[in-house]
Amino acid sequence: MKLDDLLSKYGLGQRNFQHIVLQEADLTEINLSGANFEGSDFRQGRLGKSNFCQAILRKVDLSECILWGTDLRDADLSQSILRDADLSGAKLIDANLTDAYLGKASLCGVNLTGATLLRAILYDVDLRPTSERRTNLGQANLSYADLCYANLSAALLYQTNLSGAKLCRAKLSLEPYKSPFSTDLTEANLQGADLSYADLSNAILVNANLQGADLTGTILTDADLRGTIMPDGARHQ
Questions:
Q1: DSSP readout, 156-189?
Q2: Which region holds residue 127: left if phi is over 0, alpha if psi is between -120 and 50, else beta?
Q3: Taking a C-beta distance cutoff of 8 angstroms, is the pair 25, 3 a contact?
Q4: Can you say whether the dihedral through the CA atoms of 169, 193, 146, 70 is positive or negative?
Q5: Which of 165, 150, 234 is nearest to 195 (CA)?
Q6: CA–CA gap between residue 72 and residue 139 (Å, rounded)
Q7: Furthest-apart CA atoms within the chain: distance in Å
Q8: How much is the average pLDDT of 18-34?
Q9: Under 8 Å CB-to-CB from 100, ≥6 apart: which residues?
Q10: 152: Cα separation from own chain's centroid
Q11: pTM exceeding the 0.90 threshold for the entire prediction
Q12: DSSP classification of residue 3
């Protein structure tokens, strides 16, 4: 399908565009909210600042796409492919990213408040803040997600569910030359998480739950562990 055909049909009220191919298309600042693009191919597309609020993007290939500032609130991105995608500053509030693949994606300054990333693969992703905002993962569900080698420095992870998540060698430490904020894991659920060799220097873990977590080689220098439930079930004093 050509882009002009898509926009014309959308303007006439059509919302079903499953399995279309629009590689390298320029959809910058276009409104396609509520449309169904299940199984479509948008690889290397430019979708910056577009509106995909409540859109169905299940099993969509968005590899290497530019999605900076894109509105994806309440969108269904389950099983989607976002490899090497740039989602800097995107709005993913309450979005469904179950089983999504985001390897090496840029999520700097993204808002994932309340989003579901169950079993999502976020290997080597960049979740650091931008010059305008911190990355917000507050109350998101990242249980059993793969965040190995991810950079979460200065991210907000308040009450985030990271139970069973893989955070091996992830960076959650303070970067004083890039952001004055510590990574905030206040009341986060890290039960059974793999934090082996992760760097949590200066991280805030107040009342977090680390019961059963793997802390082999984990760096906790100057971390705030007040009230934290440690791997053995004891509360840190």
A1: B-TT-B-TT-B-TT-B-S--TTT-SPPPB-TT-B
A2: alpha
A3: yes
A4: negative
A5: 165
A6: 17
A7: 63
A8: 97
A9: 77, 78, 79, 80, 81, 82, 117, 120, 121
A10: 10
A11: yes
A12: H
Decide: residue 49, CB within 10 A, 0-12 exposed, 13-18 middle, 19+ buried.
middle
Please give the Cα distance from 50 to 54 (Å, whole number). 12
Distance CA(142)–CA(140), nearest Å, equals 6
How many DSSP H helices and E strands does the chain contain?
1, 0
Whole-angstrom distance, CA of residue 38 vs CA of residue 88: 23
Structure tokens at 101: 């693949």
Residue bearing tokens 């060799």: 197
Give the alpha-carbon dihedral of 117, 122, 125, 126, to 10 degrees: 20
**Model confidence over 132-184: pLDDT tens digits?**
899 999 999 999 999 999 999 999 999 999 999 999 999 999 877 667 899 99
Instruction: Pull the structure tokens for residue 203.
Output: 């991280």
Pair of tokens at residue 44: 């290397």
pLDDT tens by residue, 77-91: 999 999 999 999 999
Sign of CA dihedral 152, 226, 142, 109: negative
Q: Which two tokens stand for residue 47?
A: 């979708």
